[in-house]
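Suppose you are handed only these lines of text.
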Amino acid sequence: MTDTQLAIVILAAGQGTRMKSSLPKVLHPIGGRPLVAHVISTARDLDAAYVRVVVRHERDRVAEAIDDGGADLQIVDQDEIPGTGRAVEVALQQLPGDFGGDVLVLSGDVPLLEASELAELIAAHRASGAAATLLSARMPDPTGYGRVVRAADGTVERIVEQKDASADEAAIDEINAGVYVFRAAQLRAHIGAVGTANSQGERYLTDVIGLLRAAGDQVAATVAPDPRVALGVNDRIQLAEAARILNDRIVRRWQREGVTVMDPATTWIDETVTLAPDVTVRPNTQLLRATVVATGAVIGPDTTLTDCEVGEHARVTRTDGTLAVIGARASVGPFAYLRPGTYLGADGKIGTFVETKNARIGDASKVPHLSYVGDAEVGVGANIGAGTIVANYDGVAKHRTEVGDHVRTGSHNVFVAPVRIGDGAYTGAGTVVRKDVPPGALALLAAPQRNIEGWVGRSRPGTAAAEAAERAEQGGQEED
Ligand code: UD1
Ligand code: CA
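From them, the structure of the protein bound to calcium ion can be written out as follows.
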């Protein structure tokens, strides 16, 4: 094996007690993906011969989340001996015994580092010939991190954890990012010697730094130019910080690609989203998971789209949508709720206070106001009257409704599924459609209206209504 081979060890076995969560810490998401998934995909961008991910707490859940199918990625189980040092030790045992390259150690809870930064760390390590090179950062508030203790000549001497630090050491603002490159041979030589003489009784990987120095080996540190990349997530406050930093990055990336983001502070875009140039994102908008937005579309304000596809020049306002497809130039909202399986054709409209589910609404068809459309297919050029409910559920099973091309339905209809309204048909206001309507027919369900003359005057004498009626009967609208 060549000397320049790289093995990557990712530490993800901890519980993350400070999160106070039933979800393992490394599975908490930012930018739509678990913390550890960010670390793994960064690792994937480096040319590593081996990737080992160490798991223990909620082992199966974590293992499932990190399995990206790569043959070189192997999960390693940590035993009951706690500590980052032990985690690395068990990972080393799962590398070929003669592996003589470099070992890059990454923390599953340090999600913001990019592959280029790690590549620089590795390059600096190889150029200096040090036995270990760690990534450090000068944190405005170093509380909670291990501190980098340097000797009088400025070289790295050891790392001391917050809980074990003296007052002087705690005042050091250079922190250990939890990311290191080791020469495999030197790491192997010292990892077994790491003890538990610390406040947590754990085997700290950080002790290897001091052991290497004591053995006369050279240890180097690269200070991250921007301390934010070294942010470690131990609690929910840091989780929100990391999510914010990642989001700022994603928003800026899309701005550089030609997307107008009116209010970056209230716009959240998952890493997995795709936007075209000349998309406009208005304030208070979340674009999540596999959402794709085509050029010229305007999304927001106050809109959440999860796994949605939005066509060119569509407008989506104050809308909540999941697994919905919105056609080119279509208009959605304000106050629309698109549930999974919604498909709106080009130039279509899903308007105000409309809920749709598993519904295919054809090109140029409109559902403009106050309606529910579920388990339905609407043809092209149709108009569904205000206040229409598709009664798709009989209490036991869901049934489908079909509405043909260029249908015009009246206001306040109920379509009792299964039912079909043929092409070009009309329905009157207030129709409860229980029977199929043939193409071109007008369906009416209208009992003749009965007016009982003078009822208000007789039955509600002295009321404002009776007085108004009396004035109207006397022929004048004005007060006398
Ligand atoms: C660790 C470092 C600290 C550094 C900080 C950077 C040690 C002893 N301390 O502290 O110097 O400033 O990271 O963020 O390494 N893990 C395991 N097995 C274990 C324990 C932890 O795999 O037995 C994993 C965790 O899941 C986590 C990572 O290692 O992903 C770091 O563990 P954590 O407990 O968060 O260490 P810190 O206290 O943050
Ligand atoms: Ca941590």
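What can we learn from it? The domain at 250-443 is CATH 2.160.10.10 (UDP N-Acetylglucosamine Acyltransferase; domain 1). The CA atoms of residues 343 and 360 lie 5 Å apart.
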